[in-house]
Amino acid sequence: MARRLSLFFAVLLFFIAVLTVGRILFFMKYSIAFSSAPPEAILIAFLKGLRFDLATACIVTAPFILLIFAPGIFQRTLLVKTVLYLLLAWEIVLIGYDYADINYYAFTQRHITFEIGNTFTDLDVIIKLGLKSYGIEILYVALFMILYAVLYHRFVKYFFRKRTQKLILPNQESAIASPAAYILIIGISVISIRGGLQFKPLGVKNAFQNERVELGILSLNGIYTTFNTLYKNLKGEERFAYLDSLNVPDEKREGFFASLIDTKKETVDPEYPLYRRYDYQPSDRLGYNVVIFVMESWSAKFSQKLGGEVSALPGFDRMAEKGLLATNCFANAQRSIEGLAAIMGSLPVWQGMVLGQGGLLDQTRFEPMGALFSRMGYETMFIHGARPGSMGFDGLVKRLGFSKHISRDDFTLTDENQDPVWGIYDEFTFKRANEEFSKMKKPFLAVIFSLTSHSPYTFPERGFKKFDRSVPFAPFLNSLKYSDWALERFFKAAKKENYFGKTLFVIVGDHTEGPSTSGSLYESYRVPLLLFAPGLIAPGEISTPVSQLDVLPTVVDALKISRPFTSWGKSLFSEGEHDMVLPRGDLFIYQKKGMMLLSDIERPLALYSISNAPAKNLLDSRPATARTLQEDLRAHIRFSSDLIKENRLKPPDANN
């Protein structure tokens, strides 16, 4: 029994050591996020991390452990060795996965959860991106894998050498020792995976029992969060099943709809409460074209017009003087496909519920932007420089009702116009868009998705390296400046075309760039949003917090369209608050009345004030506010999920 237990604990400690090394690397890589945390809080986060690492090690090794220590197996040396080396191969794969998760945090400020199922369509691009951006780091990780394999191999040899010296034949072994050790090992594993003997098992939420969200992230590891999500999926667990038994007061329901519907100017069918129309007459409609630029990784903090200390968007800042600028616009997304669904579909995104990726939302009727404008006789198109199926864009574009899709496959490819990873540089994509627009004979709706400001931040040289390595995040800022230049170049050319004077332009970021905004929850979601249409939209600023969900109703309102549409947003021209739910992996961010609440399903985790650009967690000083926002969040999600499950986003016969 002692030898069995010594091998069992040694296997666990080996992998716990790997996860600890990963946590140290994570801490060093993102040290700026922990710079203001006291040392004792960081130490506690590391100690909490050991609890999650023990659970992870037991989960990872469980199938192998169950086989090795099964009665009658342990004495079969060759079989046990084979299983141990298979476990080594599995752990090497997970070391690579843990490293990928550490770098994934840079883009989303969270560990991997449901995203694991959405990566395979772009696996080749992801591999190219990794090799180009993290080549040296990958080499170090490979060396670490080799070192780990060598140490593991030496341990296995040592263990079996010692075992041979004290060989006990199967017929000499106690009939009780083998099954007793097996039961004990299973018991230890189950308790470790549960995180102890407490009533509720260990979960992601247990990491966030501190003032700083970043410390909770530090305690977790991506392998644990991924297995936690996969386990829920295997159980067929409904993410919002708990809401079915939640008794939400009528005033909460009314408050939820009041935050989305402007009853002074909108008509709503009570049976389909998010299928609404503005109280305009068909004759009121303005026949403007609509062009929406969705800008890759554009973060508001790098626009001086939006208060940024570093100016990487001078062209945008100049345009903002002549348009309507939202100074507090939040992305309902941490990935591009989420941002596109929010902007073009006005659809919420949380806990992996993303249009176009096989969930319940894909089977739900609604009236998105493309379908709405197609029914009005508009030509609709989506233009971007990546492959048509990149990130699932091809399916998403069709689902949103766009009739024409121009992608990398529709360009004549040269070394001049494309990068080696993603596709066409922005200037050439925008130039193609202008050419398409100038040929249009009828009103059109177009969405242009930029590309070049995505990692690995490759762009044509030609003097765009304005920021040197002494400036933090210089590669990203230089790519941002190039993308900004390409956008301004588009407008200079467009002004010469006939369509320009009858077009409403919208410029909005798809999500922020992770590493450069990870120090603030506020900045990690704040993106530029500008409406530009001289003669139609008066210049000015809107400081009311708004989101990408508000783009669709704002466009419909601005053009005085009377046709119905589905939306979780609210026009920028409407009165009142715009409360919103923002995604954060398996958590939620709820924004209302100038406050940002970070919460899981059961309880608040952090509370920030937008006016303070969330610098301090106010959860302990304002618990009543946090509880009220938590109730509002539950009401928002409850009624949203009910409408989706009951397919009440649009009547079945409302197609004309």
What does this structure look like?
- Helix content is 43%, strand content 13%.
- With 656 residues, it is an alpha/beta fold.
- The chain has 2 domains: 2-234, no CATH class; 250-645, Alkaline Phosphatase, subunit A (3-Layer(aba) Sandwich), CATH 3.40.720.10.
- Strands 3, 4, 5, 6, 7, 8, 9, 10 and 11 form a 9-stranded mixed sheet that branches. Strands 13-14-15-16 form a 4-stranded antiparallel sheet, covered by helices on one side. Strands 1-2-12 form a 3-stranded antiparallel sheet.
- Strand 15 (595-599) and strand 16 (604-609) form a beta hairpin.
- The longest helix is centred in the N-terminal third of the chain and has 32 residues, at 77-108.
- Mean pLDDT is 86; it is low at 167-172.
Q: Key terms for this structure?
A:
Alkaline Phosphatase, subunit A; alpha/beta; 43% helix; single chain; nine-stranded mixed beta sheet; 656 residues
Mean pLDDT: 86
Q: Find the CATH topology of the largest domain.
A: Alkaline Phosphatase, subunit A
Secondary structure class reads: alpha/beta
Shape: globular
Q: Over all CA atoms, what is the radius of gyration?
A: 27 Å
User: How does the major sheet shape up?
Assistant: 9 strands, mixed
Number of strands: 16
Give the helix level as a range of percent: 40-55%
The CATH architecture of the largest domain comes to: 3-Layer(aba) Sandwich
Number of self-contained structural domains? 2
The number of helices is 18
